[in-house]
UniProtKB/TrEMBL annotation:
Keywords from the named record: Oxidoreductase
GO molecular function, one term: D-arabinono-1,4-lactone oxidase activity
Residue ranges crossing the lipid bilayer per the database entry: none
SUPFAM superfamilies (alphabetical): FAD-binding/transporter-associated domain-like (SSF56176)
Domain FAD-binding PCMH-type span(s) in chain numbering: 9-174
Lineage, uppermost ranks: Bacteria, Bacillati, Actinomycetota, Actinomycetes, Micrococcales
Organism superkingdom: Bacteria
Protein name: FAD-binding protein
Region annotation Disordered: where it falls in the sequence: 230-252
Gene Ontology CC entries for this record: membrane
Native source organism of the sequence: Subtercola boreus
Length: 440
């Protein structure tokens, strides 16, 4: 019986699971394997981590987290989750710039697939990587840093260029976030005021089922200056947002109403009719970034649990047309859907990042666990989004193959060249990478 992913829809198919405790053991396992894939916290919904060979889990790997205040970075070993790292940083008065909807995912696995949160000025999670260390096919170590020639390939590496053993991430002084939820935003108002709405807070999420007359919920996560803990840790004085360029507590429009919507009077779950206990605090109550930037709390099951997910990133100039295309398909999408989320992601220059070279709008679908029906719908959904250059999230369910994907990434030939150079024996390849990235 092979290992399964978090959602239970994928079996990894491995011959053997290896669980190294030390870097030396990790290097030996990689060197000895004919075919190998690294595993994070198993939250991807497709076979990106699958292998008929050796699957390397980091669940027993000795965790290291080490802050360097001089370079304002933190060193973190593979397998550590954002939840664990975030709590450690918060205790010491520091923060990461952004997080995904859940803190349960590993830093190494999330950055490898260009996992993102939201925010017009926030890049995906890989943009905080200052450097990384990888175990190469022969077991030797290589360090790659921001500014190195091939860093753009390694930062979102899909596990195809080696096994990341540790990463160094940018950090900043800790800050607070206050989450306010507004309900029933008219589609027309969203079309007229998209830029004002997505820039109204540090991180903005819109939840819809595409069929309703309005977008069900708007989540505005406002950044509130530096957190008191950091001021204490640094020995500094003074209250308020001084010194934080990203502070948006003065942003307009956050009273009881926001573009014709009303603020929710109690906490909300993104899924209709699901109790909000699994969600982080809302109602505008400020709290530490680690307790507000994710939608879901570390000690609860995130999202629905029994579900599938797909997501597509498009250049933000096509957002309104893409919303219309999806609303036109609502009669087919909505019956299979728990909820959709719309977010924004700032452009980066990583070769296989879904936001590479484009300020993006991310169109996310949390599906009911109806694999066959979702698989049947996706070709039509992808065809509807194709005119907008939609790039599928690497860690979620999609049907596009290399023929559709290659034209979306100018630097794909560079990635293929780099993979060939560092892994000529194709030790890190699997069926997913052959079908979606490298070709047969
Ligand atoms: C409930 C839920 C909510 C989600 N919310 C979001 C969201 O808000 N935003 C978003 O963008 N995505 C989201 N996702 C998707 C998720 O973030 C990605 O699939 C992410 O890659 C999962 O990280 P992981 O640690 O589980 O990696 P895994 O799924 O275990 O692995 C993913 C990839 O990373 C590679 N990898 C893992 N470890 C290493 C390593 N040490 N070295 C090299 N490669 C490695 C694997 O080989 C594989 O290719 C969500 C998923 C779930 C289940």
């Amino acid at each position: 019986m092979s290992e399964k992913n978090w959602a239970g829809n994928v079996s990894y198919g491995e011959r053997k699971l290896r669980r190294p405790r030390t870097l030396g053991e990790l290097q030996e396992h990689v060197a000895d394997a004919a075919v190998v894939r690294p595993l994070g916290s198993r939250h991807s919904f497709n076979t990106i981590a699958a292998t008929p060979g050796i699957l390397v889990s980091f669940d027993r790997f000795t965790p290291v987290m080490e802050i360097d205040m001089k370079s304002m970075t933190v060193r973190v070993t593979a397998g550590v989750t954002y939840g664990v790292l975030g709590q450690y940083l918060q205790r010491h008065g520091f923060a990461l710039a952004n997080l995904a909807s859940l803190p349960h995912i590993s830093v190494s696995g999330a950055t490898a697939t260009a996992t993102h949160g939201s925010g017009d000025r926030n890049g995906n999670l890989a943009t905080s990587i200052a450097s990384l260390q990888l175990v190469q096919a022969n077991g030797s170590l290589v360090d790659v840093s921001r500014g190195d020639d091939d860093f753009g390939g390694y930062a979102v590496g899909l596990g195809a260029l080696g096994v990341i053993s540790e990463l160094t991430l940018d950090i900043e002084p800790t800050f607070d976030v206050a989450v306010s939820v507004f309900e029933n935003l008219a589609w027309n108002d969203l079309a007229l005021h998209l830029d004002e709405i997505t820039s109204a807070a540090y991180s903005v999420s819109l939840f819809t089922n595409w069929a309703n007359d309005t977008v069900d919920q708007v989540w505005l996560k406002q950044r509130r200056g530096r957190h008191a803990l950091h001021r204490g840790a640094q020995g500094g004085a003074g209250e308020g947002a001084e010194g934080d360029d990203n502070d948006d507590s003065g942003a307009a429009g956050l009273g009881e109403r926001f573009f014709g919507t009303r603020s929710a009077t109690e906490r909300r779950h993104p899924l209709p009719d699901v109790a909000a206990e699994a969600c982080t605090e809302q109602l505008g109550l400020p709290g530490a970034w680690i307790d507000r930037l994710p939608h879901f709390r570390l000690d609860f099951t995130p999202s629905k649990g029994d579900e599938l997910q797909s997501e597509y990133l498009i250049p933000r100039e096509h957002a309104i047309a893409a919303f219309e295309a999806l609303r036109g398909l609502a009669h087919r999408i909505t019956p299979l859907l728990f909820i959709s989320e719309i977010r924004t992601v700032a452009a980066d220059n990583f070769w296989l990042s879904t936001a590479s070279g484009r300020d993006s709008v991310a169109l996310h679908f949390t599906w009911k666990p109806l694999g066959a029906e979702v698989e049947a719908l996706l070709p039509d959904l992808e065809a509807a989004l194709a005119p907008f250059g939609a790039r599928p999230h690497w860690g979620k369910v999609f049907t596009a193959g290399v023929a559709e994907i290659a034209p979306l990434y100018d630097r794909l030939p560079d990635f293929t060249r780099l993979a060939q150079q560092v892994d000529p024996g194709q030790k890190f390849h699997n069926d997913f990478l052959r079908a979606k990235v490298f070709g047969a």
